[in-house]
Specification:
InterPro entries: Cro/C1-type_HTH, Lambda_DNA-bd_dom_sf. It comes from Rheinheimera baltica. Residues 23-41 have a biased composition (Polar residues). Residues 17-43 are annotated as: Disordered. 57% of the residues lie in helices and 8% in strands. It has 76 residues and is mainly alpha-helical. It has one domain (2-71): lambda repressor-like DNA-binding domains (434 Repressor (Amino-terminal Domain), Orthogonal Bundle), CATH 1.10.260.40. The radius of gyration is 12 Å and the shape is globular.
C-alpha cells in the first residue's frame, strides 16, 4: 500500500523552522484542501491524491516525491 508521510514532513518542517505548521497554512500555500490533507495522514482512508496535489506538496515541503509517498507491503 502507498502511505503518505505528511505528518513526518510537518514535524521536520516545524523542527527546521522552529514554529508550528498547520493544515490551514499548508492548504493556503498548496491549494490542497484541508480535508484531503487529513485523509492523507490517515492510513485507513487509502486516499488517492492527484499529481498536482503531490507536486504542490513537494514545492511546499521542498522535497522529492519519494519523501511524500512510501510503499509498504500489505500484511498477508
Amino acid at each position: 500500500m502507498i502511505l503518505f508521510r505528511i505528518k513526518e514532513l510537518i514535524a521536520e518542517k516545524e523542527k527546521r523552522e522552529n514554529r508550528k505548521v498547520t493544515q490551514q497554512e499548508i492548504s493556503q500555500h498548496t491549494g490542497v484542501n484541508r480535508t484531503s490533507l487529513s485523509k492523507m495522514q490517515n492510513p485507513d482512508m487509502k486516499y488517492s491524491a492527484t499529481t498536482s496535489a503531490i507536486d504542490a506538496l513537494c514545492r511546499y515541503f521542498d522535497c522529492k516525491v519519494e519523501d511524500i509517498l512510501v510503499y509498504v507491503k500489505d500484511p498477508e
